[in-house]
Amino acid sequence: MDIEGTPVANGYFMPAEWEPHSQTWMGWPERPDNWRDYAVHAQRAFAKVAAAISMFEPVTVCASASQWENARKLLPENVRVIEMSMNDSWFRDTGPTFVVSHCRQKLAGIDWNFNSYGGLEGGCYQDWSLDLLLARKILQVEKLPRFPQNLILEGGSIHVDGEGTCLTTEECLLNKNRNPDLTREQIEDELCSYLGVRKIIWLPRGSYGDEDTNGHIDNMCCFVKPGVVLLAWTDDKLDPQYERSMEAYNILSDTTDANGRKFEIIKLHVPGPLYMTNEEAAGLVEGDSVPRVAGTRLAASYINFYIANGAIIVPQFGDKKWDDEAARVLSGAFSDHQVVRIEGAREILLGGGNIHCITQQQPAIPRSKSA
Amino acid sequence: MDIEGTPVANGYFMPAEWEPHSQTWMGWPERPDNWRDYAVHAQRAFAKVAAAISMFEPVTVCASASQWENARKLLPENVRVIEMSMNDSWFRDTGPTFVVSHCRQKLAGIDWNFNSYGGLEGGCYQDWSLDLLLARKILQVEKLPRFPQNLILEGGSIHVDGEGTCLTTEECLLNKNRNPDLTREQIEDELCSYLGVRKIIWLPRGSYGDEDTNGHIDNMCCFVKPGVVLLAWTDDKLDPQYERSMEAYNILSDTTDANGRKFEIIKLHVPGPLYMTNEEAAGLVEGDSVPRVAGTRLAASYINFYIANGAIIVPQFGDKKWDDEAARVLSGAFSDHQVVRIEGAREILLGGGNIHCITQQQPAIPRSKSA
């Protein structure tokens, strides 16, 4: 059932990720041109993430017909596995963005347009027809109303504080491969009337090496709570990440959120640098996705964590120093959450993203109102 | 989540079809070797059935990835369409048989084994691997527990009165193409401990011409309420259906139900006889299903109706006399239900069944206990 008009006009807004969820949605990786060795390693990593989240809230994993039995087998019994076809498995970007009514009485989903992160010219894969239907299918499963949206936007390109502020990057949202006919102001208008925000904070760029997504915010910077952000950081001034982090730091230092707060900025150091190995690249088969080449710098960032009910699910890259540091910083930032470290998250990174990219929270509303 | 032990051992039983439903499940026809003209006519008929039921209770239609958009387009907006792969679309036979706990507090599903109505030798199609997963997938969507069952059984081969009696046929359930190693007594034991019945009434045969299913009961005889049955009938003593109907009539007259009641038998005259036309047969393409040949007598029966909440959804075959008579008889039998006549149900019949075969009721339980 589609709702006419915008979420804001209908009394809906996007709540912050730390607000209570009724469940988490995930996809199941499969395509062998993006996930090495026919996705077996990635599937194990996804299963580990799903299992970890399912200790804190219900999880639904969607898998294609040919992978359904395999997913069912590799996932814990308390994870729901349902059949759904997709071109790739980044539910942050292709799933619905859930919105709630102001008194948390009703739930709905925004179904953004999608062009595989840049269309036929700059996109990550050439056929995204199944991804276009994902949000609608998820909303059908949950019997939830849908807000259609023509704007091309991936969920990983926005973060909200739930109180009127949105973080995004110019590198992605103003990229001409997404919405060439829209101005910055027009895009801001859409974000305001769909997410229920009043102020957009534009960082110029995302993480270094994050070319797949053209610099998604969710690999670079996120909210801890209103007025507090975490920023991907490096102390190494020779690292090309440094310039990007410093640029974002300066902007965040000079601005205020929708409610006039100055930001507290917590630095979260990146691992590595990490590069794709020959062996990893050799595990890929040729397909219609962008080639992944040995030696490429991976866009590794601990910012790409997920906030579950009472837990922070954070990628670990096998970099002892910075893995530990990330866990320490996140424990401090989210003192009322348990930090759950997912070892082997490098396999998700090899596909182009991390834990935040592969998860989508469905906010909780009172049960009697949920259907 | 699987439950160990039988439904009866866990306090569950199968309620009668006239008890309140929370929703109806249906599949979406597609295979061009069974549904003529690439299933376009059948899809319209299925959509008509779904639309009719959805006036009385929620309906979920499952469609394959390639048909999802088409199904979504042809179905009313209030019908939920979810992606699910299948070999064919007879959810009565391949969906779960839902069971409830005695105080209607809990709901679960029996996941029978299935071999395409008779296996590689006598079955209707050669690959039934997707059908084997349907019940499990449906239960996952609804987050309901599952009772696995090794017995090969299609839901259309049983009818229960919800008070301890089961109707079935020897032609189907004792057929050596289903469970060759089990005796009648062993099959009875399984039915008793899975459906929660105490008495099985065996009719020797189903309707004439119903070779696909080997004589499913749901095309031949069903309960109106405990102690009252409807029986497919013909007054034409030369019709081979006559002998079958009379044989069933005699058995039903001579027996009692689980609670010692004699049966009131209401005769429901078959239409026709109806035969597959040349044009209809010509619309089929070659595949791995049993060939459908022009001139074949169709197993047409008004018994193959569905009981929705407050409505009887009955097939109409374009046979004015018997269509009207069926509506009259059913209105009398179900005086507190509205009889909804589905014109064009011949298209479902051409595929091998009718409205009861393509529907599966999910019993209602108090909402707070449903998940």
TrEMBL record, chains A, B:
GO terms for biological process: putrescine biosynthetic process. Gene3D superfamilies: L-arginine/glycine Amidinotransferase, Chain A. Transmembrane segments: none annotated. Pfam families: PAD_porph. GO terms for molecular function: agmatine deiminase activity; protein-arginine deiminase activity. It comes from the Eukaryota. Keywords: Hydrolase. PANTHER family: AGMATINE DEIMINASE, AGMATINE DEIMINASE-RELATED. HAMAP family: Agmatine_deimin. This is Uncharacterized protein. The lineage of its organism: Eukaryota, Viridiplantae, Streptophyta, Embryophyta, Tracheophyta.
